[in-house]
Amino acid sequence: MTDVLTTEQRRRNMASIRDRDTRPEMVVRSMIHGMGYRYRLHRKGLPGKPDIVFPRLRKVIFVHGCFWHMHDCRYGKVTPATNSDFWHKKRTGNVERDRKNIAALKAQGREVLVLWECWTRDPKMIARQIADFLPPRRYSCKTPVPAPFAAKR
């Protein structure tokens, strides 16, 4: 048995990969939520439908898969053995589209942060990137319950 997939097997494999609610995206969303921030997901009205949107702050976050967006890491440098010309065009098209979408978002006055799938393996680094990107929280999520609503003992 060879390690090379047939074209049909490769097509089914690639088609089964999701574009939202991926593991890296869920890691980032969970971390942001734990920091006390609230956000919107995949806003269709914005260029590139950013993964995470902070409308009031005018900031967006993309969580890119290393393979699909050709990150300069070992995961992004993988080349499929079958139909490699097609996949190279597809992936370079993704990179070019990303560039245009980020430029359009910046032209709208939004700040953009791109987080890579491989970075989610180091939660401390991701937390630092997010903390540097988002403004500090002015209040705690754990606000005391006002006296009239406090449970009677």
Plain-language structure description:
The chain is α+β, with helices and mostly antiparallel strands and 153 residues long. It has one domain (23-132): VSR Endonuclease (Endonuclease, Chain A, 3-Layer(aba) Sandwich). It is 37% helix and 11% strand. Strands 1-2-3-4 form a 4-stranded mixed β-sheet, with helices on both faces. A hairpin with a 4-residue loop joins strand 2 (52-54) and strand 3 (59-64). It is globular. The model has no long low-confidence stretch (mean pLDDT 85).
What's the number of helices?
Answer: 4
- Judged by helices, strands and strand pairing, the structural class is alpha+beta
Main sheet: strand order: 1-2-3-4
* Assigned CATH superfamily: VSR Endonuclease
The SSE order reads HHEEEHEH
Helix content: 25-40%
DSSP strand tally? 4
Shape: globular
- Biggest sheet layout: 4 strands, mixed
CATH T-level fold name: Endonuclease, Chain A
CATH classification class: Alpha Beta
Domain count, please report it: 1
